[in-house]
Every structure is written in C-alpha cells, then in structure tokens.
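Morning - pyridoxal-5'-phosphate inputs below, output right after.
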Amino acid sequence: MRENFLPFSKPSISEAEIEGVARVLRSGWITTGPKTAEFEESFSRYCGARGSVALCSATAGMHLLLKALGIGPGDEVITPSMTWVSTVNMIVLCGATPVFADIDRHNLMVTAASIEPCITPRTRLIVPVHFAGAAADMDPIRRLCADRSITLVEDAAHAAGTEYKGEKIGASGTAIFSFHPIKNITTGEGGMFCSDDAGLLDAIRRLKFHGLGVDAYDRRSQGRSPQAEVLEPGFKYNLTDIAAVLGLGQLARLDAFIARRAALAARYRELLAEVEEIAPLDVPAYAMRHAWHLFIVRLDTERAGMSRNAFMDELKKKNIGTGIHFLAAHTQKYYRESRPELLGTLPHTEWNSARICSLPLFPAMTEEDVDDVVQAVKEVLKK
Ligand SMILES: *Cc1c(COP(=O)(O)O)cnc(C)c1O
C-alpha cells in the first residue's frame, strides 16, 4: 500500500508563479488592474475569443449572464442535472426554472436529442456542459438553438484548452470557464467569460463591477475614474491582479498540463481495460481535443457487490483520494424536496450519479501513482 495519501487533484504552482504573485503584492496595485487586463487578452488570444472578462468565479459568470439576459420568473433554462450545482442554484436564485435534459449514458453530456424535448415557449437559455475536458457535440445543439432563437451558453468550467472540430471552446459563441483549484488551470478562485457578442461582453463588464460604465481599472486613468457613475445596479465579481498574474503563468503551461493529463489518462485506460467492474467514460468519436480535466469511471455496483460510496471509502483506506463529479443536482436535498416530481425522470443521469467516481488525475502525478491507483482498485475489488 502507498505510504502517503494521493489526492484526486492538486494544482501545479511553479516557483516563478509564486514570485509573480509576490511581485504584484509589492507593486502597490493588487486588485483588478494591468495583470487582469493582460490575462483577459492572453486568454482571448489562446482561445481565439473576441473578448474575455475575468471574474471571481464561473458561478459569478453564470449569475451575471442570467442578469444580463434578464432571465427571471416564468423563464426556463435547460441544463443537465449532471453538473456542478452552481448553475442550477443561479437559475433558481434569479427566479427562473431549471429544466433538466438527460445525458448520454457513456460520456455524461447533453445532446441535441436530449435537449429538444425539454424546449417549451418559455425556454430562454440552454447551457450544455463540456464534461470532464471532452467537448459536447455542439453543431447539432447550435442548430437547435439558432432555429428557435434561443440563447446558447457553454459551461466550459472543465474545458480550458478543449477543442471541438479544430476550434477551441470559447472561440465562437459564449463560454464560461472556471479557475477553481481543481480545474485545468487555477487562479485560486476565478473564472473567465468569453463571447463573440460585443454587447453581451459590455453588459458583463458593467455588471461585474457595481454597474459602473468602467472597469475596476482604467488604463488611461491608471485606476478607476473617480467620476464614474452607476448605470445600473451591479455586482462585485471582479478578479484581483494577485489572482490574474497566477492565471497568466498557468495559461502559459496549459498545453503542457493537458499533454501530461492525456498521457496519464491513456495509462489508466490501458491498465483498467482488464478490470470488468470499472468502466471509464467513452471518448466521443467526433473531432475533438480532450483536455482530460477529470478521469471518471463508473463502478458496476451489481458485479462488484458494493456501492460506489463503499468503493470510495475502501480506496481512501488505501491512501487513494477520489471525488464525485457530480451528484445529480435534482437528487440533492433542496431540489429533491422542492421538485420531487423530477426523481426517476432522468434515467442516464441517475444511473451515473450513483456509480461515477473520479480517480486521481493532475499534472504532477507519476506513472507509479497511476499504477498505485489501479493496484488499489484491484485490491478493493478483491482481484
Ligand atoms: C467548477 C464548476 C463550475 C463553477 O465554477 P466556479 O469557478 O467554482 O464557480 C460550474 N460548472 C461546472 C461544470 C464546474 O465543474
């Protein structure tokens, strides 16, 4: 058994990045400023996005989006229940109704076919999730939305560096990225709102900082114009320069991180092929670059004779950390109690919610770490 605990995720922060953060701390300007502007420009360049707005989280980005679109009571937003609850929470907090589309059983992503039956005259917005670093099949979803003039926004929290049919996520349409510490790049906490819609970018920029007509930092005035006025009530969701400088360092290493993650994932897939109780997610067949944010497997609970939670507990005793991405939103206490009619209506989501488990995957892992995980999995399954 391993001597030390292997967490399921761990950020890779370099000494140069730490030094960069220290330089910002010494510089006299630590909140939104020149580093944030540079991070936004670099991120746009990396993805091919028309514009990017740095935020304190992806959740903030979703909140601002719903506000910018004026989504509220009587409106419906289609999204998977197999997602991080933040999207669903924001929809509910805006007074709108989340409508859950079921997912592909083997890649955990919504499809045009699963979304279409959820569309009603009240549908205002559709939010597919690029899951685990793979890309959702966007072409049919884009057609579906365009035909009906419904706004489409991609939850790209797992998809920094992901490509769909030769194009980075974020290059077209609107996508929201997360830089939470488990994501492919981190700023401690943070997010990025990318869009090809200049009007929407303006609205997000305004709403993220009190509804002032200017950013927290204006290059000309080397700060914020003291005369700036409130144009509409806004929030306080800007990113600090302390975080942005870390993001700049991380972004420069993103492609190397993804290459490392892909190599580790390939090793997992090879070694786990012989463990019949364990099924990794399918990699979609359409052209795509997988960013390997997570390595998710499904436990065949019947064959293994144990629950997913027991499986995770046993792995933990063997010093292997795991995660669940995600417990379906509609099965969690608040949603289970407020929307009991939804239980049983999303078969692929519910099936996976009870069986998925994320195995350790982060760039600093070694091949031996992967071997330790697979060895522990086999021991837990008594193979
Ligand atoms: C992490 C995550 C979010 C939220 O990101 P934050 O930056 O933590 O707000 C949203 N959606 C999905 C699918 C996520 O995994």
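Note: The first strand starts at residue 51 and ends at 55.

O.
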